[in-house]
Write a structure and sequence with these properties.
CATH superfamily of chain A: Glutaconate Coenzyme A-transferase
Keywords (chain B): Transferase
Shape of chain B: globular
Protein name (chain B): 3-oxoacid CoA-transferase subunit B
Strand content of chain B: 25-35%
Largest sheet of chain A: 9 strands, mixed
CATH class of chain A: Alpha Beta
CATH architecture of chain A: 3-Layer(aba) Sandwich
Protein name (chain A): 3-oxoacid CoA-transferase subunit A
Number of helices of chain A: 6
Order of helices and strands of chain A: EHEHEHEHEHEEEEEHEE
Structural class of chain A: alpha/beta
Number of strands of chain A: 12
Oligomer: heterodimer
Helix content of chain B: 10-25%
Number of strands of chain B: 13
InterPro entries (chain B): 3-oxoacid_CoA-transf_B, CoA_trans_fam_I, NagB/RpiA_transferase-like
Largest interface: A-B, 49 and 40 residues
Family (chain B): Belongs to the 3-oxoacid CoA-transferase subunit B family.
CATH superfamily of chain B: Glutaconate Coenzyme A-transferase
Radius of gyration of chain A: 17 Å
Radius of gyration of chain B: 18 Å
Helix content of chain A: 10-25%
C-alpha cells in the first residue's frame, strides 16, 4: 500500500483503537513525535499499551497522554527520570503497569517483530531479575535468555524529512528507535519537519525505506 | 629537566576527578569506549586530545564530542543522559538496534559504569536498590555490562556509612554476572581475576589495611 500524506496529525491517528499497542519513538524528547501524541490525546483512544524508551518527560508528549489516564501499561527501559513525575505518581498509585526491558532488548525485540523472527536468544540480563521465568539455553558455555518480539498495532515516530514515497531520513541522535519501530507495527505514522518531492532525497541516504511507512504528516508549525 | 607525566596521585582517598583521570590513563589509544551516565562521563575530560579514543553513546552515535556550550545546543543531539552534546569529525549516527548490536557483538572495547556493589566474582549491581518503593529503571546498563569486551567500574570503595561496596556476594539485584574486569575506587584499583581480587594500586592505604576493612582476601598486584 502506498504512503498516505495527511494534512493534519488528527487525520493520521483517527483510526487508533482502544486497547492498541502503540510504539512511540524518541529518546527523551529527541525524536519524540509530540504532535502525533497530542493528536492521539484529542482522538481519545484509551486502555493503550505504550512501548517507548522512557515513560514521559515533564508535562508534554507521552507524559500528557499518561496524565489523561489513557495508558494501561508502559513497556520501557528507563521510566524513572528527574522529570518523570507524571509516570512516577501513576505507578506509585498502582494506576499503571510497568514492564522494564533492557534497552537493547527493547530495540532487538522490535527489530525481531519487524524482521519476522519468532524469538531469539540474547545474553543480556541472564541471571538477573529481568530474566526470571524466561527460558534459557547455554550456547558455547554462555547463558542466553529467550526473548520474544514486541509488535505494535501502531507506531508513532519522529523523522526529519520524508518524500512522497514515505522514505525517511532522520537527524543526529533523534534517529534512535525510529527506524526499528517503523518496521515493527501494523500501521506506521511518521511526523516529519519537511515533506519533499519524490526524488529529492538521496536514495543512498534513505534510512527508513517507504515500504515501512503508512502515513506521513508534516509538523504543523512548519507547514 | 626531569619532567615525568605522573598522573597518579599517591595520597588517598581520591576525588572523583582523580579516579576519572586514572581510568582515562588506562584506556588504550584508539579504543571504542562507552561512558555510563553520571560520574563515568568525567573520564572524557581526562582523555588526551591525541588519544584517538572514540566515544560511543547508546542512543546512536560514535565519536561523540564534549557537552554543548551555550549556542551549540541542538535538541536532536544528546548523550544517553539526555544532555546536549556535540559531534566530532568522523562521527556516525545509527539506530538503537545497531547501537546495541555494537555492544553485544563485541565491538566495543571498554565501558565504564558506576556501581552500588561489585562481587569478588565480578558480578555487578548498579540498576536497582531493590527497595519496595523504588521504580526500577535499567536503561542500557545490562546490555553494556555483558557486551563490552572490558567492563570498568568507577565507584567509592565504601558507602557513606562505611559499608564495603566490593563484597563476597551482591545483596542488591544484579545487572550482570561475572562481567566486571576492573574496579577503580577512591582507595585502590582492583582487578577481578579467576584467582581472586588483585590490587593494582592503593592510594593512602595498604593492601593489608584494605583486606581488613573489606574482610576479603586480596592478592597483591601481579605486575
Amino acid at each position: 500500500m502506498s504512503m498516505q500524506l495527511c494534512d493534519h496529525a488528527d487525520e493520521a491517528v483517527a483510526d487508533v483503537e482502544d486497547g492498541s499497542t502503540v510504539l512511540v519513538g524518541g529518546f527523551g524528547m529527541a525524536g519524540m513525535p509530540v504532535e502525533l501524541i497530542d493528536a492521539l490525546i484529542r482522538q481519545g483512544a484509551t486502555d493503550l499499551t505504550v512501548v517507548s524508551n522512557n515513560a514521559g518527560n515533564g508535562d508534554t508528549g507521552l507524559a500528557a497522554l499518561l496524565a489523561k489516564g489513557r495508558v494501561r501499561k508502559v513497556v520501557c527501559s528507563f521510566p524513572r527520570q528527574a522529570d518523570s513525575y507524571v509516570f512516577d505518581e501513576l505507578y506509585r498509585a498502582g494506576k499503571i503497569d510497568l514492564e522494564v526491558v533492557p534497552q537493547g532488548n527493547l530495540a532487538e525485540r522490535m527489530r525481531a517483530a519487524g524482521a519476522g523472527i519468532g524469538a531469539f536468544y540474547c545474553p543480556t540480563g541472564a541471571g538477573t531479575l529481568l530474566a526470571e521465568g524466561k527460558e534459557t539455553r547455554v550456547i558455547d558455555g554462555r547463558t542466553y535468555v529467550l526473548e520474544y518480539p514486541i509488535k505494535g498495532d501502531v507506531a508513532l515516530i519522529g523523522a526529519h524529512r520524508a518524500d512522497r514515497m514515505g522514505n525517511l531520513v532522520y537527524r543526529k541522535t533523534a534517529r534512535n528507535f525510529g527506524p526499528v519501530m517503523a518496521t515493527a507495527a501494523t500501521t506506521v505514522i511518521a511526523q516529519v519537519r519537511e515533506v519533499v518531492d519524490t526524488g529529492a532525497l538521496d536514495p543512498e541516504a534513505v534510512v527508513t525505506p517507504g515500504i515501512f511507512v503508512d502515513r506521513v504528516v508534516q509538523e504543523a508549525d512548519r507547514a | 629537566m626531569n619532567q615525568t607525566s605522573q598522573l597518579t596521585p599517591v595520597q588517598g582517598p581520591l576525588g572523583k576527578n582523580d579516579i576519572a583521570a586514572l581510568i582515562a590513563r588506562d584506556i588504550p589509544q584508539g579504543a571504542f569506549v562507552n561512558l555510563g551516565i553520571g560520574q563515568p562521563t568525567l573520564v572524557a575530560d581526562h582523555l588526551p586530545a591525541d588519544s584517538g579514543v572514540v566515544l560511543h553513546t547508546e542512543n546512536g552515535m560514535l565519536n561523540m564530542g564534549p557537552a554543548a556550550r551555550d549556542g551549540q545546543v541542538d535538541p536532536d543531539l544528546t548523550n544517553a543522559g539526555k544532555v546536549p552534546v556535540t559531534e566530532l569529525p568522523g562521527a556516525a549516527y545509527f539506530h538503537h538496534a545497531d547501537s546495541f548490536a555494537m555492544m553485544r557483538g563485541g565491538h566495543l572495547d571498554i565501558c565504564v559504569l558506576g556501581a552500588f556493589q561489585v562481587s569478588t566474582a565480578g558480578d555487578l549491581a548498579n540498576w536497582h536498590t531493590g527497595a519496595p518503593d523504588a521504580i526500577p529503571a535499567v536503561g542500557g546498563a545490562m546490555d553494556l555490562a555483558i557486551g563490552a569486551k572490558q567492563v570498568f567500574v568507577m565507584m567509592t570503595l565504601f558507602t557513606k556509612d562505611g559499608t564495603p561496596k566490593l563484597v563476597p556476594e551482591c545483596s542488591y539485584p544484579l545487572t550482570g554476572l561475572g562481567c566486571v574486569d576492573r574496579v577503580y575506587t577512591d582507595l585502590a584499583v582492583f582487578d577481578i581475576t579467576a584467582e581472586g581480587i588483585s590490587v593494582r594500586e592503593t592510594f593512602g592505604t595498604t593492601v593489608d589495611d584494605l583486606a581488613t576493612r573489606l574482610n576479603l582476601p586480596l592478592l597483591p598486584a601481579t605486575g
